[in-house]
Amino acid sequence: MRISRIGLLAAAALALVALPALAGSPAIGSAAPDFQLTTLDGKAFTLSKTAAGQNATVLMFIATKCPYSNAYNDRMRDMAEAYRGKGVLFVGINSNKTEPAEEARDHAKSNRHTFPIMKDPDNKVADLYDAKRTPEIFVVDKQGKVVYHGRIDENHENPTGVTSPDLKNALDAMLAGKPVERAETKAFGCTIKRV
Hints:
This protein is α/β, with parallel strands linked by helices. About 35% of the residues lie in helices and about 20% in strands. The protein has a single domain (about 25-190), classed as Glutaredoxin (3-Layer(aba) Sandwich).
């Protein structure tokens, strides 16, 4: 009887440790997991504090070496600038262990990114959100709820050939006070290189 109790306790402890890993991405309408990171220019960033002052915060898991993520550099920058006046903050999160902060800083500068970018040491934020790809997007509304998760659009190769501007559609609906019709899409791109 004693062995089975120890085994049962060990199994319960293992389940509690494994549970966050099995949780998956935050569900649409659920609270966005809070986190704190430091931007590449040394400023503290806490999601709950930042999101509270915005109509929306767009979390973009990005990379310096991924051709899919790089294909969206201009679109990410242009959208960040276009939506800034509407109270939408775009932020980049680089969770790749293979891309040091200096490389991410140089990449941001050469691509004229005007939005804050942060390194995610030990993939803690990527794990919180169960982000797997670059680029992968999460939109958090001013109440701190996830309202969109997925891709920027369906066409990384040709910005003029986009037929499904999913992120833009989600932001426009949310800003108009309407439900996001397509709140989840499948992100595609390179895998996040985890620790």
